[in-house]
Amino acid sequence: MNGMNGTSDTQGKKIGDVILDVSNISLRFGGVKALTDISFNVREHEIRSIIGPNGAGKSSMLNCINGVYVPQEGRITFRGQTFGHMNRRQVAEMGLARTFQNLALFKGMSVIDNIMTGRNMKMRSNLFLQALRWGPAEREECAHREHVEHIIDFLEIQAFRKTPVGRLPYGLQKRVDLGRALAMEPKVLLLDEPMAGMNVEEKQDMCRFILDVNEEFGTTIVLIEHDMGVVMDISDRVVVLDYGKKIGDGTPDEVRGNEDVIRAYLGTSH
Ligand SMILES: Nc1ncnc2c1ncn2[C@@H]1O[C@H](COP(=O)(O)OP(=O)(O)OP(=O)(O)O)[C@@H](O)[C@H]1O
Ligand SMILES: [Mg+2]
Predict the structure, then answer these.
(1) Cβ < 6 Å from ligand 1: which residues?
(2) What is the mean pLDDT of the chain?
(3) For residues 20, 60, 9 and 250, what is the CA-based torsion angle, rounded to 10 degrees?
(4) Where is the ABC transporter domain (predicted)?
(5) Which residues pair with 33 in a beta bridge?
(6) What is the pLDDT of residues 46-60, one digit of tens each?
(7) What confidence tens digit (pLDDT) does each residue in 180-231 have?
(8) Which atom from ligand 1 is nearest to the alpha carbon of 101?
(9) Structural domains in the chain?
């Protein structure tokens, strides 16, 4: 189950300084404590996983990081800038992109147009010029389309470029969602269950793409995933949440040996 685990340092992968620091985050929805005093950090170039049973607070954590939820307490420092709350656009401009647990694609739009939506954040020309496809806007759009074509090649979805996303099998839709996030050229990529609902082959493909993004683009990855085999295989470090609290943090081996984790998570039928 852990073929590559724990070997990332010896593979010559360079883990850098802390790029994202989560400090004492608490988040409540009325009486529900979704997160209680959560702290952890993410280092540049690492694959950092967040695991835990259903309802543990994993998605809420990502939503705090990318500005969807506003935590009542705590601070998040990203690339040296500390914020209690930032709006989603600011976070994206600073180099953070995410995929969603429930796909957030435009089903009627083609693969290429969906991935283009990830570039919108980077387009400088105003919408009026874009609408006219005039002058600088047209040149800019060409450059963006070229970048999107690279992503399509990288993800091996050339055959479906013009296909409406809603017609693709689920596994490929997840891949397009990854492409949309990659189009933002993120420094840190947040992935919320990118392999959920996939068959074994689709999971293997997704796993390979995540590793390739990490290695080839040097992108730091924060991954929420229920498949323990995958998590233990590809993660450099793992955070474990249970009922909104952090109960474990360390290398896959450390987490696997943690009594609290075994009791709360690994012992269940997840
Ligand atoms: N928008 C919201 N309003 C109210 N409660 C919420 C909201 N979002 C999350 N919660 C609650 O916060 C807790 C944590 O939910 P969250 O979705 O973060 O868990 P999770 O670890 O991602 O679970 P799963 O593995 O099922 O995706 C749950 O009790 C959930 O019901
Ligand atoms: Mg979730």
Answers:
(1) 29, 32, 34, 52, 54-60, 101
(2) 87
(3) 110
(4) 20-268
(5) 28
(6) 999 999 999 999 999
(7) 999 999 999 999 999 998 999 999 999 999 999 999 999 999 999 999 999 9
(8) 27
(9) 1-95+186-270 (3.40.50.300), 108-184 (no CATH)
